[in-house]
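[job 4471] stage=fold_predict status=RUNNING
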Amino acid sequence: CLAVLLPGRLNAPEKFAEAGFASAVATRDLALDLVAVDAHLGYYRDRSVVERLRLDVVEPARAAGYDTIWLVGSSLGGIGGLLYLKHYPEDLAGVFVLAPYLGPEEAIDEIAAAGGPARWRPPNRVDDDDVGRELWSWLAPWLAGEQKVPLHLGWGTADSFDRSNRLLASALPPERVYTHPGGHDWQVWESLWEAFLDRVEPCRRQR
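[job 4471] inference complete, writing structure tokens
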């Protein structure tokens, strides 16, 4: 059982260990291995992040015997997790995104004005640089359909992405939504990670 950790825009992969993600797993005696990957901004800019994750991380993990794989992404890494979910859901046991960026305010305003993701209808044509509407154009229909791969979402209630994350949360089962006081920082995300581990207990050891 493996969790692939995707860092945010300005964070090195080592930050997950520094923030206590590994120790949180160890203290709960979960049979869950962690690997943090250097999925930096360049992979998102050239739109290669999903393929690189699959070829360099997920497929080798499968070959090594991992049959249960979670993606966990913070901030920009959350987008990576959502994009992988779009293209290769069959590879995953689930996705946990921490305060993901979900598009600019104008896109969020539009979705909110429509009554949320379930009622919003994307334009007929979405420009490649329109990150928000491009993301929601597949995410909104996915949320409305049968979600075979569970998506979990957590964020700080004082985060600048609070409004957009609440929009996404409105379309998720409440047991897959986590909030914690605080902003866009590692202290909050580590607390959310602990809450996720306690609630889901991914790969709990057999007693």
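[job 4471] summary: The longest helix spans residues 49-63.
[job 4471] exit 0
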